[in-house]
Design a protein that fits this description.
The chain has about 600 residues and is α/β, with parallel strands linked by helices. Strand 17 and strand 18 form a beta hairpin.
Length: about 600
């Protein structure tokens, strides 16, 4: 009897898994469509049979159920099993997409892109082969390129869908697939539901084999063509006067964190006159290992440690970083003391919006798009400038894109969300790290030319519009137990509504699962988000705060947000006082909310 025969003859108890998981394990060990994963799965099963606790836990999780269909796609650990990213799961996802495309009647033309992650290149070719086998025309960008460039290509080539193989800034053990609709946006609403229905049907249907004879349906796009058009669009989003940029004397450091960002950010900064220094070690894709960082997430200041070192060596005033698929931007900037300090996503958005409102055109049909958990200062600034704002969107730029689809005659002056995502213009329907890099570097250059820092820019904004502070806590919870813990948290908050947080009373609760009536299909979409409006006394003064709690759509965590702000029209003393009060409010509310959330989640994880 072979090793595989012995494993298939084992019982669920032998492997330490459920009966349903055992049935799936046997199928994966036996089916020809799963043959590529037979050896690593057999090795894991052998360890589980020996009683290895970690192997049993990994096996149980890998076969705990299908990999969740999250924000416009699926992402997770790479490996065998239906709860992992592998060629089987990717091909099933493609079959689901094909079903949804046929039902919608969109062009059977799909653009495919990939990043520098482990297996991204071969995964992209498997996806292209599955599409071609089904008779689809495939437009393949056959070199690592940014996710927003895929959005641009989908629209430029009248595609019915787009696919990116990426897991963004997830750990190096992960990969994933992002799916875009014909509008160049991650799927939303009815399109999202159709995709989910199609994927679930494909999971239980026979998986068609890839036919190499159909490879001529795959057209590799010339990089000079696709890069040139996209880079021109990005540069066009700049708004600063060219002469002021050229004379600024700004120097910047850029790192793509082992991803694709340098393919777009470097061209984006052409013509600015800014000296750009690259972190060479992090321009190396590094086989998807991200070996120089603990996390390739530009939201984390630690990801820019090498950039900060280089900035000190070359005398740069700003450090910018994009995540591996280059749709997010993080930054460090020098303060008055000459030291580099991080600027969070909300404040980067405020700086960019101020820059656009000061120097960019204000079309009559322009608007600003942002989310319900992004700084209220975005809406305040835009309205003060006479620009229409939608500021109650759910998290995820698919909702920005949903508004763009509802009102295509409008022009996006600026769009943002707190998690370091920013957009401008109408041809990329997603967040774009290269566009953000252009705007932020322009703002930094103009400030530097006037002897100011980006922190001075923030102070100027706060004096006019009020001091604002926002903080987010990420409560990680892994595996099936973690998912149950996060679900328990949300259920408990609804079943036992809190009356206060951090000494402030709950005066209103907005449950985004409840029906809304704004008249906009996008704004009225339901989501598992709870928003608490708080008010009361803090340090002897009237205080308000917004608190929001939601599960992440892409990572194993719950997110807790606290946002507060003061009135505008401040002088220097008033700003100093506002900073102390608002910081205290946000810290107190967030600490209380985090403690309650952790208690609810740990009670479930420990049960």
């Amino acid at each position: 009897m072979s090793n595989v025969d012995a494993l298939t003859a084992s019982s669920p108890e032998d492997l330490g898994v459920s009966t349903s998981a055992h049935t799936e394990i046997v199928r994966w060990l036996s089916a020809t469509t799963h043959a590529d994963y037979r050896e690593p799965l057999a090795a894991l099963c052998t360890l589980a049979l020996s009683g290895d606790a970690q192997a049993r836990a990994d096996l149980a999780d890998a076969f705990a159920g299908p990999l969740p269909i999250g924000t416009g796609g699926r992402r997770g650990l790479v490996g065998p099993g239906p709860n992992r990213i592998n060629t089987v799961v990717l091909r099933e996802t493609i079959e689901g997409l094909l079903q949804a495309m046929r039902a919608e009647g969109v062009p059977m033309r799909v653009a495919v892109a990939f990043d520098t992650r482990r297996d991204s290149h071969p995964f992209a070719h498997v996806v292209a082969g599955q599409l071609a086998t089904a008779g689809v025309e495939v437009l393949l960008i056959d070199a690592p390129r940014p996710t927003p460039q895929l959005s641009f290509v989908v629209r430029a080539h009248d595609c019915g869908a787009g696919i990116v193989i990426s897991a963004s800034h997830n750990p190096p053990s992960d990969n994933g697939i992002k799916i875009y609709g014909p509008d160049g946006a991650q799927v939303l609403g009815a399109r999202d539901r159709a995709l989910m229905t199609g994927i679930r049907a494909a999971m239980v249907a026979p998986l068609p084999a890839i036919d190499p004879a159909q490879a001529d349906r795959i057209r590799v796009l010339p990089l000079t063509e696709t890069d040139g058009a996209y880079h021109a669009f990005v540069r066009d989003q700049g708004v600063a006067p060219a002469d002021a940029l050229a004379s600024s004397g700004l120097a910047a450091v850029f790192t793509p964190l082992h991803g694709v960002g340098h393919t777009a950010v470097v061209p984006a900064l052409e013509g600015t006159g800014v000296r750009v220094h690259l972190v060479d070690r992090q321009c190396d894709p590094d086989g998807g290992r991200f070996s120089t960082v603990d996390s390739a997430n530009p939201e984390s200041p630690e990801s820019m440690t090498l950039g900060a070192t280089l900035a000190d060596e070359v005398g740069a005033q700003v450090v910018i970083a994009t995540d591996p698929d280059a749709d997010r931007l993080g930054a460090l900037a020098r303060g008055a003391d000459g030291a580099l300090a991080p600027i969070d996503g909300n404040r980067l958005a405020v700086i960019m919006l101020d820059h656009v409102l000061r120097h960019g055109p204000r079309p009559d049909n322009g608007w600003v798009l942002t989310t319900v958990v992004t700084s209220a200062l975005i809406g305040i600034m835009a309205r003060a400038a006479g620009v229409e704002v939608v500021d109650d969107l759910l998290v995820g730029f698919k909702h920005h894109a949903g508004m763009m689809a509802e009102q295509p005659e409008r022009t996006v002056v600026f769009g943002c969300e707190e998690s370091h995502g920013f957009m401008r213009g109408d041809h990329v329907h997603d967040k774009d790290g290269a566009v953000a890099a252009r705007l932020l570097v322009e703002a930094a250059a103009l400030a530097h030319g006037q002897g100011k820092t980006l922190f001075d820019v923030l102070d100027d904004i706060w004096l006019r519009h009020g001091y604002h502070r926002e903080r987010t806590e990420n409560l990680y919870a892994y595996g099936a137990a973690g998912r149950e813990a996060i679900a328990t948290l949300m259920k408990q908050l609804r079943a036992e509504p809190p009356t206060a947080f951090g000494g402030l009373d709950v005066i209103d609760v907005i449950d985004r699962l409840e029906p809304r009536g704004t008249g906009s299909a996008t704004r009225d979409l339901p989501s598992n988000v709870l928003i608490y409006e708080l008010a009361g006394e803090h340090q002897g003064r009237r205080a308000t705060c917004r608190l929001a709690v939601r599960p992440s759509g892409t990572e194993p965590k719950a997110k807790v947000y606290a946002l507060a702000g003061s009135e505008g029209g401040l002088d220097a003393a008033g700003l100093a006082a506002a900073k102390g009060q608002i910081d205290g409010i946000v810290d107190a509310v967030l600490a209380d909310a985090r403690a309650r959330a952790e208690a609810a989640m740990s009670s479930r994880q420990g049960s």
